[in-house]
Amino acid sequence: MTTAYSYVRFSSQKQAAGDSFRRQTELAEKYAKKHGLKIDQTLKADRGVSAFDQSNVIKGNLGKFLHEIKKGNVERGSVLLVESLDRISRADVLSALDVFTSIIRSGVKIVTLLDEAEYEEESIRKNPFELFGSLMILMRAGEESATKSRRLSKAWKEKRKGASKQKLTAICPAWLRLKDDRSEFEVISDRGAVVQRIFAMAKEGHGQGVIAKRFNQESLEPWGRGKKKGKGWHSSYLHKILTNPAVMGHFELHTQKSGQKRKATGEVVEDYFPAVIDPSTFYEVTSLRQGRRAGIAKFAGSSIKGGIATRNGVISNLFTGIGECGYCGSSLRFVDKGKKPKNDCYLVCSNAVMGKGCKYLSTSYPFFESACLQALRELDLTQLLSRNLNASQNEVLRVQLRSIEAELVEIPGKIERLVSLVESADSEAPDAIIQRIKMLEEKQMTLGLKVENTRAEIAGTTATEKGVRSFGAMLEEMTLRMSGSVG
Q1: Burial letters for 219-245: b for 16+ Cβ neighbours within 10 Å, e otherwise?
Q2: Which end of the chain is flanked by fewer CB atoms within 10 Å, N or C?
């Protein structure tokens, strides 16, 4: 009995809830029964996968099937059943023809179920005109998809142009909702208050892990809709809120091609959402968090990964380059026995390890680390460093500097994205984009001068009360993370 493979594809997940899958499957089963074919079930459907951008060939199940053909795992004389040729490809005619001919030249017959037309190498060689019919079908499918893509792209460009006047979609951050008349978004009062509290705590120096732990201790209900509602607050979700410019009311425009991730266009619609956080607070918190992450990295002697200092993803020794032997003054070496339990690691004098005369006395690393961090947390750092504090007269200037620097850092990326957009445009770039680039360049120059002037005014300051609090929060969050108390 000849083996047949039924290939089912639809490009939209909405079609999965419709009739597309059942229709294509039933057509294949009826044809197989009528012609005495045995359907091999190994070729899976491509659900919600586009054939226009060749996602079904590049990373879909059709691509896997083509790979199996090349490996010789699909016998010559087998049959590929498809509803129509556009299920195989809707790409440009040359790309589509390449997929089509690669199948039939391998000895696999293609049957289109709507008209029961058969395409195979031998018959086309005898009668090349058969190829013209398939070629016209593939050309029409590709042109239809290209036309649809252009229309959708144009429609969304028009919607983006009017984004400041009307809302593109009902999708919005979790602390907002679209009004019934779809004219504007409104703040969900209790959630807006939570966002403000998150930024207030971050401004005081609390890390996102500490904030998450506090909310969970208070049994504050996490956000979400239906099954997506979480079981608790997580550090990663707090990070998303703290880095989302939507809290200032900004909406960053994106484009997305089928099968690819969204890409920012570089355009920002201000006042698209109702703001719950003012820009100065947003940029100040951004700067504080960046400084704390850098502090953790320096303190641990490691690199930042996922917001916490790590070496190969695991914190090994916080005291690299810091600890010294009390007998000879040489550095302490971290020794991991590699045995269970996991806390079987020690700090030992490096001279003793190398046999240079010092005593080989080991200290349990987990105990030493815990004791040091606990001692630091219990210190009154503000009193300890009070001789160096001069925060009152310079605090306002420092806040301004952090805000300016954070805003300045974002500008080159915005300019680069806009320039890429201009370079990739099929026609002359819109004046609005050119003007936006000029405005950003002028703003970059102005902010650069402000940074220099502000730095000159606060030169000589060695510490601030906020810096001390941030350092304390850093220690607290590191301890929480290492103990596994933070999600």
Answers
A1: eeeebeeeeeeeeebbbebbbebbebb
A2: N
CA angle 26, 31, 36 (to 5 degrees): 125
Residue 143: CB atoms within 10 Å: 13
Report mean pLDDT in 10-residue bins for the chain, 487 residues: 88 59 88 91 84 79 90 91 83 81 90 84 78 68 58 54 55 86 85 94 85 88 70 86 90 61 64 87 82 52 38 60 80 72 74 77 82 68 50 66 83 81 66 78 83 70 49 59 51
- In the numeric block, the tokens 């005495």 are attached to 36
3-class SS of residue 110: strand
Percentage helix, strand, coil for the chain under 3-state DSSP, each rounded to 5: 55, 15, 35
Q: What is the DSSP string of 220-280?
A: PPPP-SGGG--SS--HHHHHHHHT-GGGGT-EEEEE--TTS--EEEEEEETTSSPPSS-HH
Which residue pairs, CB below 8 angstroms and at least 24 apart, start in 395-399?
395/464, 395/466, 397/454, 397/457, 397/458, 398/458, 398/461, 398/464, 398/466, 399/280, 399/284
Rounded Cα distance between 229 and 225, Å, is 5
Q: Which amino acid is at 87?
A: R
Q: Give first-to-last CA distance, the chain, whole Å.
A: 56
Q: Which helix (H) or strand (E) holds 149?
A: helix 129-161
Q: With H, G, I as helix, E, B as strand and everything else as coil, classify residue 197.
A: helix
Alpha helix segments (H runs only) across 425-459? 431-457
- Written as six digits, the tokens of 176 are 């907002």
